[in-house]
Amino acid sequence: MSEPILEDNLNKILLKPRFKEELLEDKSAILKKFEDHFKQDSSRFRTKTADNHIVIDVPKDEDHFWSPQLQIEIITEDDKTILKGLFGPKPQVWTMFMFFHFAVAFAFIVFLIMAYTQYSLKQEYQFSMYMCIAMPILWILFYVFGQLGKKKGYSQMVELDEYVKSILGNSIR
């Protein structure tokens, strides 16, 4: 968990890096650690809990468009306690981002159908073909934009990671 994005090659590519840690204590003890720490109210991070799910946000005064959110799930798997974490943008940002991706995919399909139809009818189809070329380029630009946003929020991601480590203490295997 020391470098959340650079942990493995897959997380360098993913817009929402993940990690998985095996813990020494059982699920209820780990959840109690988080609960006790959150009750102290000494943390500058904003937190929400629901059953075995924990969501940690950066402080409101440091929050920006690309600020990450850490979602944690504590599960028991094969008699082992596992902490699964997912760094990502806030749900509103992610939803908007995915909407743009689907809109580009839909536009690509529409322009592809238009180009085929115009070609079949022996009409001008160059504009549709140009748009079919432009849509994947736009999709790649969205991906690059997402990667730049991930880099912009990297320092906050490391802070969230260190915060979780400070709560868990020696519980990480």
In short:
The chain is an alpha+beta fold and 173 residues long. The protein contains five helices and five strands; from the N terminus they run H-E-H-E-E-E-E-H-H-H. The longest helix has 30 residues, at 91-120.
3D structure, described in words:
By secondary structure, the protein is α+β, with helices and mostly antiparallel strands. It has helices at residues 9-13, 27-40, 91-120, 126-152, 154-168, and strands spanning 18-23, 46-50, 53-57, 68-77, 80-89. The chain has a five-stranded antiparallel sheet with strand order 1-5-4-3-2. Helix 3 runs antiparallel to helix 4. The longest helix is centred in the middle third of the chain and has 30 residues, at 91-120. It is elongated. 17% of the residues are buried.
Q: What's the tally of helices?
A: 5
Helix content: 40-55%
* Secondary structure category: alpha+beta
The largest pleated sheet is described as:
5 strands, antiparallel
Number of strands: 5
What's the overall geometry?
A: elongated
How confident overall, as mean pLDDT?
Answer: 87
Provide the low-confidence segments as ranges.
none
Beta-strand level of the residues, as a percent range? 15-25%
Distance between the termini: 11 Å
Radius of gyration: 22 Å
The strand line-up of the biggest sheet is 1-5-4-3-2
H and E string: HEHEEEEHHH
